[in-house]
Design a protein that fits this description.
This protein is of the alpha/beta class. It has a single domain, classed as 3-Layer(aba) Sandwich (Rossmann fold), CATH 3.40.50.150. The protein is about 40% helix and about 20% strand. It has a 7-stranded mixed beta sheet with strand order 3-2-1-4-5-7-6, sandwiched between helices. Helix 7 (about 140-145) links the parallel strand 4 (about 125-130) and strand 5. It starts with a helix and ends with a strand. This is O-methyltransferase.
Length: about 210
């Protein structure tokens, strides 16, 4: 996607809410790797997916600066619906809680700091929607981890599944660890008869998975 085309799209979709604009700015000023932030376009898509699916229980693996968690929470329609978001980097906790407190839908977000493998069993929920945007090396592990917790008819959305196009590079070139993790994940999903799936070439690739 060209910068010109992206600018055109951003002018023709819902505007970025002011608290998310501030969060994106703070992410770029205060945090490392700000490219990891979902941003305006993907954020509006995540909100729209939540509107369409109408989940009551949402799980996010990989909170980072909290942009996507806020968009997921914004889309919730049912009273009592909640987003559980898990972030392994405890140094982000103060930043996250600061911005969740400023978010109009912050009361819908439950932040968990730690390892998802330990935290998920303790949450003890069945989820209607799972958003995976964490360590790319571990995507296959995350898929195996969350699938038993997704209800039949529920969805998994995985970010970065095209990984700058590296997944389609010449096979003679040995992939780095993150690319290899994404490639294993993509192969795993493609060969799973228990799901329907589509890859949307938005930003760095977004895979939408439906559990039969």
């Amino acid at each position: 996607m060209t910068e010109q085309l992206e600018d055109y799209i951003l002018r023709h979709i819902d505007p970025e809410p002011s608290h998310l604009y501030k969060l994106d700015r703070d992410t770029h000023i205060r945090l490392l790797y700000p490219r990891m932030c979902s941003g305006h376009m993907q954020g509006r898509l995540l909100k729209m997916l939540v509107r369409m699916i109408r989940p009551r229980r949402v799980l996010e693996l990989g909170t980072y600066s909290g942009y996507s968690a806020q968009c997921l929470a914004e889309g919730l329609l049912d009273d009592g619906a909640v987003v559980h978001t898990i972030e392994i980097e405890d140094e982000l906790e103060d930043f996250l809680r600061e911005h969740f407190a400023q978010c109009p839908w912050g009361n819908r977000i439950k932040l968990h700091i730690g390892d998802a493998e330990q935290i998920l069993p303790a949450i003890d929920e069945t989820f209607d929607l799972v958003f995976i945007d964490a360590n790319k090396r571990q995507y296959p592990d995350y898929y195996r981890l969350v699938m038993p917790h997704v209800r039949q008819g529920g969805f998994i959305v995985a970010d970065n599944t095209l990984w700058d196009g590296k997944v389609a590079e010449h096979p003679a070139k040995a992939p780095d660890a993150q690319t290899a993790g994404i490639m294993r994940f993509n192969d795993m999903v493609a060969s799973d008869p228990g799901v329907e799936k589509v890859i949307v070439p938005l930003r760095d690739g977004l895979t939408i998975i439906y559990k039969k």
